[in-house]
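forwarding from the other thread:

> can someone predict this with zinc ion?

sure thing
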Amino acid sequence: MTRSFECPQCGNPRGMGDLCPQCGSDELPVALSDTLVLNLKFDSPSAEEALERLTVALRRASEVGIKAIILIHGYGASGEGGRIKWAVHNALENNYFADRVDEYHFGEQTAYGSEAYHALLRRRPSLKGYLKHFKEGNAGMTVLLLGSVSRIA
Ligand SMILES: [Zn+2]
């Protein structure tokens, strides 16, 4: 899952950022999967920084053809993990990302085997492998389905 993208110039695995670290190409990377795992907790950013990263990632993800993002934001009653989760939930519920995000499913509402879980898999069968991590309704994750259809508040 760390090798989700390939450089069209040099063929090396790369991230979805603007430049290939191997050859410096600025061509759009080739997505090897339509699903991206995005760890918002990486580097312990503040909640604001995490939201900014998500904004940038969402724009880039739709450019390169990603259809679903497994968002890892952590959880907890206190601490940075809890704050990032709260900020992300709040932003989604207020349609802050509605121009990119067609549907969102919070981990705790999408427990393995639940009705919501099966509904999500019917919509995107390719998520099955990723959703194993939702075994106990993993409260530290959220699934975003990207689409061109805007949600209406
Ligand atoms: Zn390259």
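The CA atoms of residues 45 and 123 lie 32 Å apart. thats all i got for now
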